[in-house]
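thought: fold this chain, then report.
action: predict
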Amino acid sequence: ANIKGTMEKGARVLWNSLQKFSSHEDWLQIWPGHGAGSACGKGISAIPYSTLGYERRFNWAFTTKTEDDFVARVLEGQPEPPTYFATMKMLNQRGPEMRRTTLPPRLDASRLAAVVAAGALVVDTRPADAFAAGHVPGTLNIPFNSSFVTWAGWLLPYDDDLYVVVAHDDDARVAELTRQLALIGLDRVAGVFSAEVAIGHAAPGDASDTIPQITAAELASRLAAGTVDVIDVRNGAEWREGHIAGARHVPLGYLADQFADLPGGKPLVLHCRSGSRSAVAASLLRRLGRREVVNLVGGLEAWRAAGLPTTGAASASH
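observation:
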């Protein structure tokens, strides 16, 4: 954990493993340990199982002839490793702490303002559009969906208590949410607030409790006028495939670390591929104290669908 230069060593171990694996029969079943969309690797297939015979015929790894070529290909375009990967390695090595067997307590609405004011981390797990329409200032939005654990691992600390706002305040949902956090070692959920609490404590019309949204056409107009700066929070491979001219690239997982270096003086428009990661990014910057943040509705997909240009590898096709 946290040791540099291990990627190439790991790639060579993988090459040697594949050589030994190839001696088995075609009918051998393969059950992947990671699913499509996982941050654990690039281009992970969505099929739930396979056979060695199928992979031997169609997987590039088995058609690569030399170890050096394999290493170069497997390392090219790897996604940025989430910060919690290092913690997971250490937890797996020494063993996790004892897990709690009871649900975190439900907390009264009157305590929410005090919890936020004290600087505690409150994670609002509602969908991004609901959060954007109204939320308690100072809370962080990580929607409880298929990407929840990934971004929780990127953005939440391991050494502090945290609180959650849930969209459906029932035991089954709270149990599943805390179970998913515990899977990556985040066991310090100190309390739960219902979504009604968040809505009730967000004063409508107060600029601090909403996240403004902007369309692709509106962004193009404001970029031409020079009245906004654009932050692209996608990963490095996505950025290299094409991006908005003049945008600054800061992947969501590194946004807090680079907060002090973000451009100032103009509103920041955040975007990703479809608008989901940038919604999380907007809530993060708000929590860190940046007031004028705006989310691009539909992300780069909407920008390209509107016929607007990108620069980089994908620019020729748009």
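thought: worth noting. The radius of gyration is 22 Å.
final: tokens above.
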